[in-house]
Amino acid sequence: MNRKCTVFKTARFIGKRWTLLILLELYKGKSRRKRYSELKERLINITPKILSTRLKELEKEGLVEKRITADKFPIKSEYSLTASGRDFISVIRGIKKWALKWDKGSVICENRDCKHCEF
């Protein structure tokens, strides 16, 4: 496959372990912004190094935005989806729809919007 291919280039970063789950976690819930510690707590078994690395990669790709609040102590870093990241959620929904259609999903997911998933 040609390395300049759009699919190849996109698969290089979204195909990395934890990437889709990080994007989904940033999408879920009422809050548009999440702290590193919140993500770490929700993504069971992810190592701090991998979480940090993936967030930097997603920021570089323009799917995640990092916001630093330094007006009070402690300094707070929060992450949120960019417009591109929010748009990418439709791809994750497509994966879910495919998985449910071809029996790759679970009963938990059948009638739930990922935004409200607590599992």
What would a concise description of this structure say?
With 119 residues, the chain is mainly α. 48% of the residues lie in helices and 12% in strands. It has 5 helices and 3 strands, in the order H-H-E-H-H-E-E-H.
Q: What's the CATH class, please?
A: Mainly Alpha
Report the total helices: 5
Strand content: 5-15%
Please state the average pLDDT score.
88
Number of strands: 3
Radius of gyration: 15 Å
**Helix/sheet category:** mainly alpha
Biggest sheet layout = 3 strands, antiparallel
Low-pLDDT regions: none
Task: From the 3D structure, determine the CATH topology.
Answer: Arc Repressor Mutant, subunit A
**CATH-assigned homologous superfamily:** Winged helix-like DNA-binding domain superfamily/Winged helix DNA-binding domain
- CATH-defined architecture: Orthogonal Bundle
The strand order across the widest sheet is: 1-3-2
The figure for the number of domains is 1
* Approximate helicity band: 40-55%
Cα distance spanning the termini: 37 Å
What is the ordering of alpha helices and beta strands?
Answer: HHEHHEEH
C-alpha geometry: globular
Structure report:
By secondary structure, the protein is mainly α. Helices cover 48% and strands 12% of the residues. Helix 2 (19-27) packs across helix 5 (83-101). It contains five helices and three strands; from the N terminus they run ααβααββα. The longest helix has 19 residues, at 83-101. It has a single domain, classed as Arc Repressor Mutant, subunit A (Orthogonal Bundle). The chain has helices at 6-14, 19-27, 36-42, 48-60, 83-101, and strands at 34-35, 64-69, 76-81. Strand 2 (64-69) and strand 3 (76-81) form a beta hairpin. The protein is globular.
